[in-house]
Each structure stands twice: as structure tokens, then as C-alpha cells.
Amino acid sequence: MTSQFGNSYTSIQCFDGTNMVFDEYMGYLFVHVGYEDIACLKRMLCVCICIVQHLCGPDVSDLKHNLRQSSLLSHLLDTWSQLADNDQACLVEAVEQLTVNPEVNATVIKSLREAANKLKSMVDYSRSHALIFVENKFLSLYSSRDAEDLAAADILFLNILTESFRRPPPPPPPPVPEPDSDEGDSSDEYYSPPSSPSPSVPP
């Protein structure tokens, strides 16, 4: 909008109640159309771009060719929408943290440390994070040495990702059968030969 029309509008409202919001990321224009209010559509669009950043990084074009990535993106957006409808914390883009007694917390941290060390030996990557969620609530986090701190958006994305595994995506629609090239055109007319007259019976 800014480069082509010389303005910086980020939304359009139509007389029939249709609203459109748009934003740009890595040269790609993201558009969300719906009948909800502008603020709701903008929140959904921001969540979409945040998920795209975590899934694709700067290579947004991967969504055009990678069906698995685009299907995962759609499933994550559906999961976020379901969580936002039923969980106030997700609606305000927050993650609720569970409080447990010190003994349980120490046991959890020990398990996370062992998991992070095992992962380090498997992938040969020294920096890692290990987290535990109880349903969609955050329980504990262990970060290896020199690992960068996770941002709030990172933890929220991981929460949506783990919750999506508990909510299997709907099955894909059945493929549309292709017409058989051997069969004739349905518009062709077919004629059957007239039936032979029945022989007359002599009197």
C-alpha cells in the first residue's frame, strides 16, 4: 500500500461488514479477511506472521512448495484459534505457569537437564532448551550453558506447537477422481437398432 498508493493504511472496512487487514513480512503481503472487528483480525494476522517466522525464518516462499509446512501452519492457526476461544491466557498472548512444591520442581529440573544433555550428544549441538508443558500450561524450563534466553513469543509458539500434537488435524479431503480418457463424451448420443418385428402367427 505504501509503495503503490502512497499511503500507510493497514486495514480496509467495507459497507457490507467485510473487514480486511494486511501486513508485510520479508516482502510478502499477508492479508486476513473476515467479519470480525479490525483489532481481532490484526491479532490473528500478527499470530500468523509470528508462526511463519518460527516455521520458515526468512524463507517464506517455502510455504508455496512445501505442502507439509503449509499444512502445519494451517493446523497451528486452528489450534491457536481454539485455545483463544477457551483460554483467556492464550487470548492475551500469555502462558500460564504452574506452581509446584520444591521437591517436584527439583525432580523436573533434573529430568530436563538429563534430556538436554542426551539431546546434545545426539545432535552435536551445544546450546539447547528443554521445557515441560502440562496441557497448555508451562511447568519448567532448563537451558544449557551459553544458550540464548527464550523470548515470550518463543514460549508461546512452543505452547501452541505442543498443543497442536494433542489435537490431530482433520483428515484431508478425498482426491477428486480424474475423468477416464477411454470413456466417450457424456454428451454423445447413442442409438440402439430397432427391435425386429415379432413373426406373425398364421391363422
UniProtKB/TrEMBL annotation:
<feature type="compositionally biased region" description="Acidic residues">
    <location>
        <begin position="179"/>
        <end position="188"/>
    </location>
</feature>
<feature type="compositionally biased region" description="Pro residues">
    <location>
        <begin position="167"/>
        <end position="178"/>
    </location>
</feature>
<dbReference type="InterPro" id="IPR043971">
    <property type="entry name" value="FUZ/MON1/HPS1_longin_2"/>
</dbReference>
<dbReference type="InterPro" id="IPR026053">
    <property type="entry name" value="HPS1"/>
</dbReference>
<dbReference type="GO" id="GO:0005085">
    <property type="term" value="F:guanyl-nucleotide exchange factor activity"/>
</dbReference>
<feature type="compositionally biased region" description="Pro residues">
    <location>
        <begin position="194"/>
        <end position="203"/>
    </location>
</feature>
<dbReference type="GO" id="GO:0031085">
    <property type="term" value="C:BLOC-3 complex"/>
</dbReference>
<feature type="domain" description="FUZ/MON1/HPS1 first Longin">
    <location>
        <begin position="1"/>
        <end position="83"/>
    </location>
</feature>
<dbReference type="Pfam" id="PF19037">
    <property type="entry name" value="Fuz_longin_2"/>
</dbReference>
<feature type="region of interest" description="Disordered">
    <location>
        <begin position="164"/>
        <end position="203"/>
    </location>
</feature>
<dbReference type="InterPro" id="IPR043972">
    <property type="entry name" value="FUZ/MON1/HPS1_longin_1"/>
</dbReference>
<dbReference type="GO" id="GO:0016192">
    <property type="term" value="P:vesicle-mediated transport"/>
</dbReference>
<feature type="domain" description="FUZ/MON1/HPS1 second Longin">
    <location>
        <begin position="126"/>
        <end position="166"/>
    </location>
</feature>
<dbReference type="Pfam" id="PF19036">
    <property type="entry name" value="Fuz_longin_1"/>
</dbReference>
<protein>
    <recommendedName>
        <fullName>FUZ/MON1/HPS1 first Longin domain-containing protein</fullName>
    </recommendedName>
</protein>
